[in-house]
Amino acid sequence: MRIALYPGSFDPITLGHLNIIRRAARIFDALHVCVMVNSAKQTMFTLDERADMIRRTVRRLENVVVETRDDMLLVKHAKDIGAGVIIKGLRAVSDFDWEFQMALANKIVEPDIETLFMTSSSKYTYLSSTVVKEMARYGVDLGDFVPREIIDDILARINK
Ligand code: ADP
Predict the structure, then answer these.
(1) Per-residue pLDDT of the chain (160 residues; tens, 9 = 90+)
(2) What superfamily in CATH does domain 3-158 come from?
(3) Would you kindly state where each structural domain of the chain is located, as residue ranges?
């Protein structure tokens, strides 16, 4: 069974993330989407809220599992769940430097685990969770940016 792990902050999940999830789920027997804590980022949603929003979005994708992690190095978690591959989405060269460093560092910690980069769909290269939050604050319709299932969650949080 080929298992892959797709990690991120997903604060919140965007159509760019969802595009990577759909494509990766077609390649692997099981895809674990793992919501992680990023100490460098102040988030709008809690870890569980972010996971819940992803679950609602992917509920028709039968081989996708959504989970949260706040206490473990990513590659250790990959090893724990039997994932041989970590999936990363690449939007532009600006993503590359950091992801390349992390992939090499992870390879030293766990040589058996591969990092696989998937290019963002050209439709979504501009899209990030930060862009979504910025648009939401100015009342822009979020339909082009995030899955329908979570639009109300974002509006409720912004209006609080
Ligand atoms: P961000 O906060 O920058 O949106 P995340 O930490 O939530 O990023 O991203 C998780 C993963 O999804 C990363 O591998 C990131 O490169 C990828 N990703 C983010 N946005 C997109 C997009 N629009 N298209 C493809 N991949 C993306």
Answers:
(1) 999 999 999 999 999 999 999 999 999 999 999 999 988 888 999 999 999 999 999 999 999 999 999 988 899 999 999 999 999 999 988 889 999 999 999 999 999 999 999 999 999 999 999 999 999 999 999 999 999 999 999 999 998 8
(2) HUPs (3.40.50.620)
(3) 3-158
Residue closest via CA to ligand 1's atom 11 equals: 8
SS (H, E, C) 104-149: HHHHHHCCCCEEEEEECCHHHCCCCHHHHHHHHHCCCCHHHCCCHH
Task: Retrieve residue 149's tokens.
Answer: 């299932």
Of 17, 32, 69, 133, the catalytic one is 17
Is 77 marked active-site?
no
